[in-house]
Amino acid sequence: MNVLMITPRFTEHAGGDGLYAFHLVRGLRGAGHHVHVLTIRNGRFVLLTMEGGNETTAEFGTAGGDALSEHYHSAAAADALRRTFERHQPDVVHIHGIHQYFTAACVPVLRRARVPVVFTVHDYKLVCGNAGFFSDRTGEQCTACLTGTLWNPVTERCKRGSFVQSTAAAVQMQLWSLRGFLELVTAVHAPSRFVGTLLERHPILRGKIFTERHPLLFAPGPVPEPTGQPTVLFFGRLVPHKGGHLAVEAMRGSGSDPSIRFLGWKTQSEIRSMMGPDTIALLPYLAPETFCFAVLEAMMEGCAVVTSARGAIPELVQHGVNGIVVDPPDAAGFRRAVELLLSDTALRQRLSDAARRAGEGLLSVHDHAVRMAGHYHSIITSPRTSEVQ
Terminus of the chain with fewer CB atoms < 10 Å: N or C? Predict the structure, then answer.
């Protein structure tokens, strides 16, 4: 099968979309499929292709620039996509997320190509102006955009509480809608049962969704011996829906040591080195997570996890079995959970031991790639796809 993968990020060192796309491509190529990757590197659109066992790189135009218009209509992105189709004529296109430089300008190219389009949900930008079904203004979940109404970001001012930024988000949604992108997408890959159920409520996406959980993308390291000196770790982007402010608030007054250290940006390997059976991973998410690699990673490294019940997290964390789930997610609840784990060594160890088994129900990258190839085949041969083409 000849697959074109479109992903703004493509590296094993990325999180979320870039990490998953990297491993999916590796799995598909290992299963004998031809996979071409259109991505962005060093500010340029590039096409990565395997030829004779070696990966070759073809560079196209610059990805964006200072002009605001590039966020809404990138001629360079459309040109890169058009030239990719001319060279390789893929059987199916698999898109990972909507990026500011992979714009609605690409939709006519996809439509003319008349090939099935699969879209993996890594966030909710496909249908939500703020991408996370979360309002920065209210600090609460918001699913108003599931109705298909496109001006909700303006009325809700959900993007950073700013009328200007919320309006810009709504304009971008309007452009995608006018181009007919949602109608163009043949199938939507939901990485969790939660996402699949949620997006079935959208009037255009209903009936297009299939659920296939993400595979196990990493193997846990050796288990260090507990030292009996627990630490509390929060890691993630410093944006409201990741709950970093709740982590700080929860730790105020939790114990005799008032110090909270901000470590700055760390690599994945550096973050993992901080994890283990003495680590309490405090991940107080407020938005509905699509899968949550961060929680899974912390669990498999043996952390006792304290988190929320938002989105797909309960599909990984069972309260009192392999972690602690705080619902509703507030600072007082997270503080009580952390204090419990700090004071109860036996409970902390039991949750740590159970957490390391969190990946047992997930497929390997190879097996997941085989299943995704099966989905591609079903989509390509579907009578509905033939009618659209």
Answer: C
> Collapsing DSSP states into helix, strand and coil, what is residue 216?
coil
Q: Looking at residues 187-198, what average pLDDT do you find?
A: 97
- Cα angle 388, 99, 33 (rounded to 5 degrees) comes to 55
Angle 343-221-294 from CA coordinates, rounded to 5° = 70
Q: Is residue 47 within 8 Å of 35, Cβ to Cβ? A: no
Average of per-residue pLDDT across 237-243: 92
Q: What is the pLDDT of residue 257?
A: 57
Q: Is the pLDDT of residue 383 over 90?
A: no
Residue 221 included in any domain: no
Predicted confidence at residue 70, as pLDDT, reads 66
Same domain, 109 and 237: no
Range of the domain at 315: 231-361
Q: What is the pTM of this model?
A: 0.91
CATH number at residue 341: 3.40.50.2000
- Prior bond to 108 cis, omega within 30? no
Give Cβ neighbours of residue 139 (< 8 Å, ≥ 6 apart): 240, 286
Q: What is d(CA 322, CA 348) in angstroms, rounded to the nearest whole number?
A: 10
Question: Domain count of the chain?
Answer: 2
